[in-house]
Amino acid sequence: MHLVTTVAFVSKMATSGEAPESWYLALLGFAEHFRTSSPPKIRLCVHCLQAVFQFKPPQRVEARTHLQLGSVLYHHTKNTELARSHLEKAWFISQQIPQFEDVKFEAASLLSELYCQQILVDSAKPLLRKAIQISQQTPYWHCRLLFQLAQLHTLEKDLVSACDLLGVGAEYARVVGSEYTRALFLLSKGMLLLMERKLGEVHPLLTLCGTIVENWQGNPIQKESLRVFFLVLQVTHYLDAGQVKSVKPCLKQLQQCIQTISTLHDDEILPSNPADLFHWLPKEHMCVLVYLVTVMHSMQAGYLEKAQKYTDKALMQLEKLKMLDSSPILSTFQVILLEHIIMCRLVTGHKATALQEISQVCQLCAQSPRLFTNHASQLHTMLGLYCISVNCMDNAEAQFTAALRLTTHQELWAFIVTNLASVYIREGNRHQELYSLLERINPDHNFPVSSHCLRAAAFYIRGLLSFFQGRYNEAKRFLRETLKMSNAEDLNRLTACSLVLLGHIFYVLGNHRESNNMVVPAMQLASKIPDMSVQLWSSALLKDLNKACGNTIDAHEAAQMHQNFSQQLLQDHIAACSLPEHNLISWTDGPPPVGQFQAQNGPTTSLASLL
Predict the structure, then answer these.
(1) Three-class SS string for 197-226?
(2) Which run of H or of E encompasses 568?
(3) Residue 66 shares a structural domain with residue 192
(4) What is the pTM of this model?
(5) What CATH number does residue 486 fall under?
(6) pLDDT bucket at 29, cuts 50 / 70 / 90
(7) Where a domain ends, among 51, 85, 120?
(8) 138-191 tens-digit pLDDT
(9) Same domain, 94 and 172
(10) GO annotations under biological process (predicted)?
(11) Which end of the chain is more exposed for a tag (fewer CB within 10 A), N or C?
């Protein structure tokens, strides 16, 4: 039906004395018809809703129509000023109407969301605070608004205020008899406490959450989703601490839990308690999240083929979800997955692929300023690791320096400093800067983070420096400490690196038997990971060892292996440096330079470190 005919038809209904509900419902019906058309006819939908005001509707209808118009304009157009005007009117009018909670609080929630989008956070906060203050008799909205204000504080990095609000929410949920939503508030608070590294507060809180989750009897999907949330926090806590072996039981429980959820059918029966009307994440998002933490574990443990397998599954699932869902969390998941698989590629000798995936992260970050703010340091860190792999040490230093400037995350800071120290060791002439860094990551004294993995890596860096300085006994002490720590938590890559370096030390000292005892298991472990650089190093040592011991056949076999690894790395090196994306190594400031790459004629970096 044509719009003019529609309005004329409704006008006739209104003037003929029909009940107000009839003409209003007719306009509402037409508006909804246009909104849900394929493709949506938003302009006609808006006209129908605006026509409601021509009939001087009652206050309730007026407020609800302002809310509907604000919502349609906010979600389907770029006219945020008009959307804001309608939502502000809906909020103002609805406050004057008794028992009109849904319109009142939905207007407040949507308006504060719009304010945040317009960078008017100082307008959003008092609005949400007032809405929270007057919603205490409406459990669903009171909890939802508390979550929303806590999220706003979290985005502003004010985690203390966010934790306080989540604590208020947990207590409110307990009072109104919603143990389910109480658990959601407490788990959310636990997540923020983990981000703040307040481990003393995290442990008792997670223990309480575990008890609440196990005792709660309700919708099976809701119960299992609480268990997933709880187990994800436990797994990430272990992984942050670098405890790759200790996390395995929790990770196994998490994987079993997500399998259980995937077999459950969504129950359409609404909870009897309105405070229970919340979901942590959709099932499909939870599946991707479990893939993600599995990839994180595989990467740290050195099971890189497993990491690749789960990354492929997760990225395939993400592509399907992003066709139907524009939720920002999906892009966050995608970026974190890519960050981990990029590090895997650099280890396995696929630098060209890693560089293209770094470029993909740049493109994703360019689409979202918030995503870039949260991942800029990681992006420069990955570029620094890539620069090391192609022997561009000056660029690596510049990338790691940029990354340090952009992070306040302690574990990431320690990871960057460790890698920057390795750059200074390789350059051999940066003694003052190197010793300054090493003082800040001294594994024997006041190590800055609780990560088992990073502390083991710090011992390795000390051992590497002592090796280059010819202080072999000191190097052996540091490397044995690394081995002890890496064996305790199945840190396979650190184990392989420590074994091959110890093997090299014993070879230099003329202890060929002990050298062989180190290099052979290093080679086996490196092949299992697979770690191309350690394989190259081990094969070179095996060639020299066997030659020194007169084992001609074994020496020839090791030489052939070394030649094969050298050729693979050389070809990959040339391919990577020939890509236009290789110019990213010069980017150290500002937003990611998407679309600014220029192809180079060929590699410009030294291959000496590979051969």
Answers:
(1) CCHHHHHHHHHHHHHHHHHCCCCHHHHHHH
(2) helix 552-578
(3) no
(4) 0.85
(5) 1.25.40.10
(6) confident
(7) 120
(8) 999 999 999 999 999 998 889 999 999 999 999 999 999 999 999 999 999 999
(9) no
(10) cell division; chromosome segregation; mitotic sister chromatid cohesion
(11) N
